[in-house]
Design goal:
single chain; 464 residues; alpha+beta; six-stranded mixed beta sheet; four-stranded antiparallel beta sheet; 21% strand; metal-binding; protease; Peptidase_M20; Peptidase_M20_dimer
Length: 464
């Protein structure tokens, strides 16, 4: 990275923020049908931005859902190719009354940019585009070849992208994938996420009598669906946090002692987490630290339970139905489809008498992990350290980005998760924001990384 590139980024900072503000003003909410045209506007905006940055072959590809935006720059003859992935869709803004400023009118307060999508993921995707523009404007060329794949359905589980990847493997062929949709360890403390948990989610619907019943006339004689679903949900875990679904842990890949030691060395204490969350105790699977539980152990969590009378006061009924939503976070070697079948078998085995149970499936995605000593990841660590001035931590993510595992399986190339967000930035919640310190340092880090990665790959090739 040269001083010319850094100076270009600094001189054009206000212009870049204005452009990002324009993109954030587009309410590209993929989950809501009424925003379908807004999602397309979001795609058109980033396509224009790629073109203005100097990318070629920019095209909006139609899918069964929202469009995928592609662009490339392939003039670095004989050099490796990087595929940059991002997404331009955002979460809904509800509850709107909790926003301190309008969610689609980007506002800067305390050197933080507030808007829906500021951190997840428009802000981070935008950084990639502007960095390549800065290098081209400053140097006239790029150190590597680049391709972009920017989708509009990540926030609803990327339902159309696997098919797009399968049908366009040659178009997306590359040597490494870089994604900025993860977070740093803390402010000023960069981290590279080398693993993500997978997931599967489902809804359980319990049906008892053919209508709500008077609890005085029928109570004690028929099964109450609320009691039944409570009993069923209680059967999933024991008092020590261990999941009781038969075969749930059969294929779980255990942490190595090296990884456990690395986790213990991180400045992430239970006390700090309790203070952050406002709780008096942490709970979970016995025998594991809070970091291990959230990064590398599987879970089964209740996400919602409801049924019966929900209004003010009391209505003495036995409800006809009760419902629950559950999700499982999965770790390497656990297959979502297998876990779904095991959970369904558990439900069938443990359902109380006098009810019918229906299971509806929702999102699912495979877990992902790659060795953190991979040259592409180590090059990223060096660039982070050069810009932030501190060693880079290597972490796993407790959440899921299902498309990461899909890229890994379909394209069979390493994925570098190189994020610049912070866990406190309220993504998916009101008052989402992005620290502009990481907007600035993040672009410098990315600019350095492309040159560091080129040297790293060249060295590896020479060594071989």
């Amino acid at each position: 990275m040269t001083d010319k590139i850094v100076n270009y980024l600094k001189e054009n900072r206000d212009t870049h923020l204005k452009e990002l503000t324009d993109w954030l003003a587009v309410p590209s909410v993929s989950a809501l049908p009424e925003h379908k045209e807004d999602v397309r506007k979001g795609a058109e905006w980033i396509a224009d931005s790629l073109t203005n940055a100097g990318m070629e072959n920019v095209k909006i590809y139609e899918t069964d859902g929202h469009p995928v935006v592609y662009g490339d720059w392939l003039k670095a003859e004989g050099k490796p190719t990087v595929l940059v992935y991002g997404h331009y869709d955002v979460q809904p803004v509800d509850p709107i009354e909790l926003w301190e400023s309008p969610p689609y009118e980007a506002t800067i307060r305390d050197n933080k940019l507030y808007a829906r999508g500021a951190s997840d993921d428009k802000g981070q995707t935008f950084m990639h585009v502007k960095v390549l523009q800065a290098i081209l404007k400053s140097e006239g060329t790029l150190p590597l070849n680049f391709k972009f794949c920017i989708e509009g359905e990540e926030e609803i589980g990327s339902p159309s992208l696997p098919k797009f990847i399968e049908e366009n493997k040659d178009l997306l062929a590359a040597d490494v994938i870089v994604i900025s949709d993860t977070g740093m360890l803390d402010r000023g403390k960069p981290a590279i996420c080398y693993g993500l948990r997978g997931m599967c989610a489902m809804q359980i619907d319990v049906t008892g009598p053919n209508s709500d019943l008077h609890s005085g006339l029928y109570g004690g004689a028929v099964q109450n669906p609320l009691h039944a679903i409570t009993e069923l949900l209680q059967s999933f875990r024991d008092e020590n946090g261990r999941i009781l679904v038969d075969g749930f842990y059969d294929n779980v890949q255990e942490l190595t002692e090296e990884e456990r030691e690395a986790f213990r060395a991180l400045p992430l204490t239970e006390e700090a987490l309790k203070n952050q969350l406002g709780v008096t105790e942490l709970t979970g699977e016995e025998g594991y630290s809070h970091i291990e539980r959230t990064w590398a152990r599987p879970t089964l969590e209740l996400n919602g339970v409801w049924g019966g009378f929900q209004g003010e006061g009391i209505k003495t009924v036995i409800p006809a139905k009760a419902h629950a939503k559950i999700s499982c976070r999965l770790v390497p070697n656990q297959e979502p489809d297998e876990i779904i079948e095991k959970v369904k078998a558990h439900i069938e085995k443990h359902k109380p008498a006098g009810i019918d149970v229906k299971v509806t499936l929702f999102d699912k995605g495979a877990p992902y992990v790659t060795p953190f000593d991979h040259p592409a990841i180590q090059a990223a660590a060096r660039s982070y350290e050069k810009v932030y001035g501190v060693p880079t931590a290597f972490t796993r993510g407790g959440g899921s980005i299902p498309i990461v595992a899909t890229f890994d399986q379909m394209l069979n190339i390493p994925v570098v998760l190189m994020g610049f967000g912070l866990s406190t930035e309220n993504f998916h919640a009101p008052n989402e924001h992005f620290h502009l310190e990481n907007f600035d340092k993040g672009m410098e880090t990315l600019a350095d990384y492309w040159f560091e990665l080129e040297k790293s790959i060249q060295k590896e090739t020479t060594t071989k």
